[in-house]
Write a structure and sequence with these properties.
Layout: E1 2-11, E2 17-25, E3 28-33, E4 38-40, E5 45-46, H1 47-65, E6 69-74, E7 84-86, E8 99-103, E9 108-113, H2 117-125, E10 128-133, E11 146-153, H3 159-175, E12 181-184, E13 190-195, H4 202-219, E14 224-225, E15 237-240, E16 250-251, H5 270-279, H6 289-299, H7 304-308, H8 316-321, H9 363-368, E17 399-402, E18 408-417, E19 421-428, E20 431-436, H10 447-454, E21 459-469, H11 477-481, H12 483-486, E22 490-501, E23 504-505, H13 511-521, E24 528-530, E25 534-537, H14 538-547, E26 552-557, E27 567-575, E28 579-589, E29 597-606, E30 609-616, H15 626-631, E31 651-652, E32 658-662, E33 665-666, E34 672-673, E35 676-680
Parallel strand pairs: 14-15, 17-27, 22-24
Antiparallel strand pairs: 1-2, 2-3, 4-5, 6-7, 6-9, 6-10, 8-9, 10-16, 11-13, 11-15, 12-13, 18-25, 18-26, 19-20, 19-21, 21-22, 22-23, 26-27, 28-29, 28-31, 28-32, 29-30, 32-35, 33-34
Helix pairs in contact: 1-2, 1-6, 3-5
């Protein structure tokens, strides 16, 4: 409690008159000076307001300062004046200010400790705007209670890339069973803390942090650097692992920062980090003093687990073997807009409490499926199968028709449309075949999927999609095409239907019955994943998919059976982007480099023939080697009547290759306007294009 008693005028710095105020703080008598001095000129934020902020935030802040040596960073003339660090406790300190000695090779430093409100107000009166503490507590200064990563954006980037890097670290740590907690630096970056609260030394925490930073740099060399030199940080984030040192301090949670405005190092939820990244809005991760007070009043201390949660660091070997976190299923950004955290940090769940599936847009849909009777029992005994899996090699998947717009209907469910290779999985205990929609076997290309399907120990036929996820957890077809050679991204087999189980043909069962049986038999693998859905609310689900940059959604009628090899109207694909699959009928070379494509000539079926559908002139570098493949198909025959005018000679090709293109609209003449190449569809033949 702070109570003001009286004030007078005395000589201040430089002979100026300084106003001093006597206050009682929890039974301690303090003299405060120059309370009217403006410390943040841009917003006229005074020294009195600085002290008031620290006094009001004290209940949340003091537990994080308790017994930690503090390095004072003093700004006697405010943020626009000079500052100095003060490690040695001032000689004029009150006798009740606690200190702790720290020995170095050449000297001893007695650091202040801010263990109560009077000490906090006293240091604030010294114009100590920023609080910088060690990762250990006295007297056990050789034992860090936490591990920290300071994510510092280099020139040309901002806190949004820090947010993405933070999510990669979070997911990698979660895979190792470790929870982490983010906070803003209050300046330009993001910081991530891993609570330990067990006996451990700095040698171990520093080695682990260094190894993790180098691992991330290896996984994401275009976005991350683990070395300190500033020349290496341009357009990248420096993952500063070196803070895990007994001689280094980091800015304390809830500390003010000496910027133009009184911003604060603020604990945030992972949902807030994801939301800022999705909205591409760095302001979502900037908080001033009054906002922080409101957040703490409404939600308490989001960083409290850092003080209490006990965790053991995994071995460096376990870290090296972890797959990493570029996983759709770990995203928490799929809640509806009404459930998103606001500027107070409120959210209907805590970031560290549960892993979520991307495809599920809310907890409610998952709860709605509980209690349903599953009409297909999973057989645990050795009943002879009615249908041999080996006899199903010629099975083909059911295909969806297209729809123009999303809709709401309680008789339908809605799933994410996945940008990958459609594949049936024929699983017979330790034998697995992955079959493409055209009948090609893909098993040898994706051994990791095969291994995880073998681990299910089932006899079943699954329908699903092979996809590769980018760093944001979004399926990218270009990554899938190059996965066998580049191994970039995270490979996943998304399973959305169950056709046979233990020899029983389930295709005549309703979709919801098949999906409920499927949900119960999959074992939560990181590679083989059950595809969640929402019930009835297609419009909101479509908006979410569009906002996240996904390809679209698929609407499926709940009561419908499965018709192998048929294209049906009770499965409807609804695309967020205007994407068309066209046949490549010719190409031109670049005027600058003949080994580079200038444009593709697209064709689409019209009756039994092809007609010209436009030029595709951008995005052509997304598939390396495409020009080489096209040159092998060069022919003297023109696939359609008429030819467009081009600035380079047209080389016609046999109409065999299919590609996806994005475009603005179809013209009245049936030409794609603004067409851009998306990907080569090696999984489809020209005869399949309708």
């Amino acid at each position: 409690m702070v109570n003001s008693s009286d004030s007078d005028k005395t000589a201040g710095r430089g002979g100026r008159a300084a106003k001093k105020t006597q206050v009682d703080v929890d039974g301690r008598r303090l003299e405060l000076s120059n309370l009217e001095k403006i410390f943040y000129p841009k917003v006229k934020f005074t020294k009195a307001q600085v002290i008031d902020y620290y006094a009001r935030i004290a209940p949340a802040l003091l537990p994080h300062l308790k017994n930690r040596p503090v390095s004072l960073k003093r700004y006697p003339d405010g943020v626009t004046g000079s500052y100095f660090f003060e490690k040695q406790a001032p000689s004029h300190r009150p006798t009740w200010i606690e200190t702790t000695p720290v020995e170095s090779e050449d000297r001893r430093i007695d650091y202040c400790m801010i263990n109560d409100l009077p000490a906090l107000v006293w240091t604030s009166n010294l114009a100590n705007l920023e609080l910088h503490t060690f990762l250990h507590c006295a007297p056990k200064i050789e034992i860090p209670t936490m591990l920290a990563f300071d994510l510092d954006p280099g020139e040309g980037t901002d806190i949004l890339l820090c947010a993405q890097v933070g999510l990669w670290i979070r997911d990698l740590l979660e895979e190792l069973g470790i929870a982490s907690f983010p906070k803003t630096s209050g300046s330009k970056g993001l910081q991530l803390y891993v609570p330990l609260n067990i006996p451990i030394d700095y040698d171990k925490t520093k080695a682990f942090a260094h190894a993790l930073a180098e691992r991330l740099e290896s996984d994401h060399p275009d976005q991350i650097v683990s070395k300190m030199q500033k020349r290496l940080r341009i357009a990248k984030v420096f993952v500063d692992w070196s803070q895990n040192d007994e001689h280094k301090t980091t800015v304390t949670v809830y500390s003010l920062r000496a910027k133009d405005r009184p911003t604060v190092s603020t604990p945030v939820t992972w949902e807030e980090v994801e939301l800022a990244l999705r909205k591409k809005d760095p302001k979502q991760l900037v908080f001033e003093w009054h906002e922080v007070l409101e957040r703490v009043e409404k939600n308490g201390d989001l960083f409290e687990p850092v003080l209490k949660l006990q965790q053991r660091l995994p071995s460096l070997k376990a870290l090296a073997g972890a797959r990493g976190g570029n996983v759709v299923g770990r995203s928490r950004t799929s809640q509806k807009s009404s459930e998103r955290p606001d500027r107070t940090g409120r959210a209907p769940y805590k970031a560290h409490r549960a892993k979520r599936k991307l495809e599920s847009t809310s907890e409610r849909e998952a709860e709605q499926t509980t209690g349903k009777e599953v009409t297909v029992a999973v057989q645990e005994n050795n009943v002879s199968p009615e249908v041999k899996i080996s006899a199903l090699r010629q099975l083909r998947p059911m295909l969806a028709k297209s729809a123009d717009a999303a809709f709401n209907d309680p008789g339908w469910i809605f799933e994410i449309k996945l940008d990958g290779y459609r594949a049936l999985a024929l699983v017979d205990r330790d034998s697995v075949k992955l079959i493409s929609r055209t009948g090609n076997e893909l098993s040898a290309a994706y051994p990791a999927i095969v291994d995880d399907l073998v681990a299910t120990n089932l006899t079943a036929v699954f329908d699903g999609e092979i996809a590769v996820l980018d760093e944001s957890g979004v399926p990218r077809f270009a990554l899938l095409q190059n996965y066998r050679t580049a191994h970039r991204g995270h490979l996943v087999y998304y399973v959305f239907d169950l056709l046979f189980l233990n020899g029983r043909d389930l295709r005549n069962q309703s979709l919801v019955e098949r999906k409920e049986a499927l949900r119960r038999i999959l074992n939560g693998s990181e590679i083989v994943r059950y595809v969640e859905h929402v019930d009835g609310t297609g419009k909101a689900f479509f908006d979410l998919a569009r906002d996240r940059g996904l390809e679209g959604i698929v609407a499926k009628k709940k009561s419908a059976a499965y018709f192998s090899g048929k294209r049906v109207d009770h499965w409807l694909k609804i695309k967020c982007r205007r994407v068309e699959e066209v046949i490549i009928c010719g190409f031109t070379e670049s005027r600058v480099n003949q080994n580079t494509l200038g444009a593709l000539l697209a064709g689409v079926p019209e009756g039994a023939a092809l007609r010209y559908a436009g030029l595709v002139g951008t995005g052509l570098n997304r598939t390396p080697g495409l020009i080489t493949n096209l040159r092998k198909l060069v022919t003297g025959e023109r696939p359609f009547q008429g030819a467009p005018k081009t600035d380079m000679p047209i080389r016609w090709v046999e109409p065999k290759l299919v590609c996806s293109v994005e475009f603005q609209e179809w013209t009245k003449d049936g030409i794609l306007r603004g067409a851009s190449f998306v990907s080569l569809r090696t999984d489809k033949t020209a005869s399949e294009i309708a």
